[in-house]
Amino acid sequence: MYLPGRDASRAFVTGDYSEAGLVNDVSDLSLSEMLTLQNWLSFYEKNYEFIGRVIGRFYREDGLPTPELTQAEAMITKALEANKQDLKEKQKFPPCNAEWSSTRGSRFWCSQKSGGVSRDWIGVPRKLFKPGAKEPHCVCVKTTGPPSDQTPDDPTHRNRGDLDHPNLGEYTGCPPLATTCSVPL
């Protein structure tokens, strides 16, 4: 949709191209939506020739940025930092592979590439409880060596990988070191 002289950033992120959605206020977008906005902006800066700015919420008539642009940029910086932290956590606790069947229930398993994270260990399925999250999610947990936040030469580690992390829980009925876990209905 071509909207000359109109900022459609919010509509791009939300998918709402109605009159109500074609507003230039992005102050209430989530961090993940702001990250989407940043990716969209990066794409256009890389692939299109700059021809000007839309005067309004983000740029004054003299072309200088407004406080709202500074606020949006701060939100994008926060979103990029949160994304970086999420990727770091995903390296430590990659998501499990999962399948569900109406007859068998759920099955979770770990591999060297589960969760799209390549690594040199397989791990075991565990429930990861995150503060503020309603439900835990399945992650693969390293079972040998030091915990991820310790060095191999640290004398306090017990060669249990991250199994003793306080936010992890075992699946009921699953062997503690099994790489596959089935949770019947």
Describe the structure.
This protein has three helices and six strands, in the order αααββββββ. The protein has a three-stranded antiparallel β-sheet, with no helix packed on it. A three-stranded antiparallel β-sheet has the order 4-3-5, with no helix packed on it. The longest helix has 26 residues, at 67-92. It has helices spanning 9-14, 31-47, 67-92; strands at residues 97-101, 105-109, 124-128, 137-141, 168-169, 180-183. It has 185 residues and is of the alpha+beta class. A hairpin with an 8-residue loop joins strand 3 and strand 4.
Kindly summarize this structure in a few lines.
This protein is α+β, with helices and mostly antiparallel strands and 185 residues long. 26% of the residues lie in helices and 14% in strands. The model has no long low-confidence stretch (mean pLDDT 90).
